[in-house]
Amino acid sequence: MRTPPARRRGFLAVAAVVVAAIAGTSLFAVLRQGDLPQDLSEELTARVTVLLESASQEEHLHHGHHFEEDAGKIICAVEPFGVSPEDARSVTEVEWVYARHMCAITGPGTDWKTSVRAAGPLAVHFGHHAEVQVPMAGTGYPQRVRELIPERLHEEAFADFGDDEALEAARARFEQAK
Questions:
Q1: Which superkingdom heads the taxonomic lineage of this protein's source (predicted)?
Q2: How far apart are CA 2 and CA 6, in angstroms?
């Protein structure tokens, strides 16, 4: 028995919608930079964390972070959400990494919950000397973020820090550094 033409067209229309939805979802996942390959994300996380935690007092002032001379050690969690060029798949191909960061400062009598912290999006240029750029806080902050981070990544730049494992690892390092 043959399927009536109207019923067949309906079935084909539903199948086409399903295929289009799957293709659209796949394309969105490919285009969304927050979905960096895990090995690339892990390596970028490690490199940016080392850059932030080993920065001098002067470099931290340049990043907009202000704290006392003997405040303690800086401990950071980093969550990359994009790179330039967009198609980079290894650290050697990355010119810029865009990430959220959260840094806490150890100090006498300070615990993780009450530590002085700095957080938000940043950009790191990998070149002869890596350069960290952090938008300055205060009036006009959202516009400075938009100027620093490519438009295709604005939604990610303003998203909350979502890597609980990175935050927990930073908290553990903070406790060890005290």
A1: Bacteria
A2: 12
